[in-house]
């Protein structure tokens, strides 16, 4: 049974159709990511769920209750924004306890819940500090503690790591996933970063122009893109037209476009003789970029540019302007 349900959601800003006949269900306790480029509608959908934006048509259900017309306070939903929105003149304790005080909880209950929340975000001992005395990552954890302390039905996260450096971002990603598991909290996360979505999510909904292009777990979306847009957004696929595939590789297919993952392409120094299982082409390396343990090569095949990802190995590096041969197993070609 779905815990969150969007039925035929439409949202207009004047004449702009932002969300288009959108249907979506989210299971209780899952970590779901709305992924897509700026302007695709993902943050708008999140804000509609929170009650911060109204919908033009459709209905939203939470735990079998129609919340379409309820105000944000009635929905029992916590939300963390890109900006931490902490009260600068309040201590960490006062910031975290603010929502509980609004609910008129007893002081001993507030003390225990704040202590528990600080433990979850690993900020014990910071109760008396002010936001100005905290790092960006610590401020983000205070904002997280302020949300979870009220025990909301759903936690919404709107690109919460966008202003944080890469190392700290990975640490916070890990901590939020741990908290999600420990509290069994339903989380809906918004990001434009496909790597972040792959790391964080149980389910990814990839959005484009107000609709959901594809849904599935990270492995499904990555391995089986349903159309060229999904392939271009997830995993840096090579998207090749049918005519170019035949022209440069001598291989004919029924689809107008095909996709090949960069890591599924091999580079050979010599021409491949046994080509029954493979398609092959001669090319020239025009650039290479080291990406940690992966090196990405850009290969030119008479005007067709192809990306190839290989494990970084000092003993087998290829240089720019070097002539090579590409080898691709036919089973690794995705047809649309």
- Total strands: 18
Overall outline: elongated
| Spatial order of strands in the largest sheet | 6-7-8-3-9-10
Oligomer: single chain
Determine Rg (CA atoms, Å).
24 Å
Mean pLDDT: 92
Query: How many angstroms does the end-to-end distance come to?
Result: 32 Å
Number of discrete helical segments:
10
Q: Helix and strand string, N-terminal first?
A: EEEHEEHEHHHEHEHEEHHEHEEEEEEE
Strand content: 25-35%
Could you please describe the fold and organization of this structure?
This protein has helices at 42-50, 72-75, 92-102, 107-120, 136-148, 166-183, 194-200, 218-223, 228-233, 242-249, and strands spanning 4-13, 16-26, 31-35, 57-62, 65-66, 77-80, 154-158, 186-191, 203-208, 211-216, 238-241, 257-260, 265-268, 278-291, 294-301, 304-311, 323-329, 334-335. It has 336 residues and is of the alpha+beta class. The strands form four sheets. A six-stranded mixed sheet has the order 6-7-8-3-9-10, with helices on both faces. Helix 3 runs parallel beside helix 5. The two termini are 32 Å apart. 33% of the residues are buried. The model has no long low-confidence stretch (mean pLDDT 92).
